Amino acid sequence: MRVKIYYEDTDVGGIVYHANYIKFCERARSDLFFTAGRKFFLPSSHFVVSSLEAKFIKPSVLGDLLEIKTSVLEIKKASLVLRQEIFRIGDINGETKLESVFAMNVTLAFLKDGKPQRLSEELLSFISSSMSLTGENL
């Protein structure tokens, strides 16, 4: 997914506010489901973030064009660990760049009625086909 940085995404210095990187990653995860025409939650079951580890590598600024890439590191019975990376692919001057600006590992737990629930084969198949698999514990 691509995101262009607007004034509302930045702080007073024109640098992307740190929490927005996590929001961009959340949008990218949701977009995987939207693009496939799938619901990412059902009335009684859904994913929740149970942990995340973030690394801020370089600042992004007003006018940058970013691309968010998502890959699967690990799939467990009722959760999965994703690697999400954000790359600057362009700037306000239209110059093409390719540099890493942010990365995070996020653990998503799948819950049904508020309790951990085993991932269905259908959901596992969708995840495997929608995101690149990079982990060794799949």
TrEMBL record:
Coiled-coil spans in chain: none
Matching Pfam families: 4HBT (PF03061)
Entries under InterPro entries matching the protein: 4-hydroxybenzoyl-CoA_TE (IPR050563), HotDog_dom_sf (IPR029069), Thioestr_dom (IPR006683), YbgC/YbaW (IPR006684)
UniProtKB keywords: Hydrolase
Its EC number(s): 3.1.2.-
Domain Thioesterase positions: 13-90
GO molecular function, one term: thiolester hydrolase activity
Family membership: Belongs to the 4-hydroxybenzoyl-CoA thioesterase family.
Protein name (Swiss-Prot/TrEMBL): YbgC/FadM family acyl-CoA thioesterase
Organism name: Campylobacter californiensis
Upper taxonomic lineage: Bacteria, Pseudomonadati, Campylobacterota, Epsilonproteobacteria, Campylobacterales
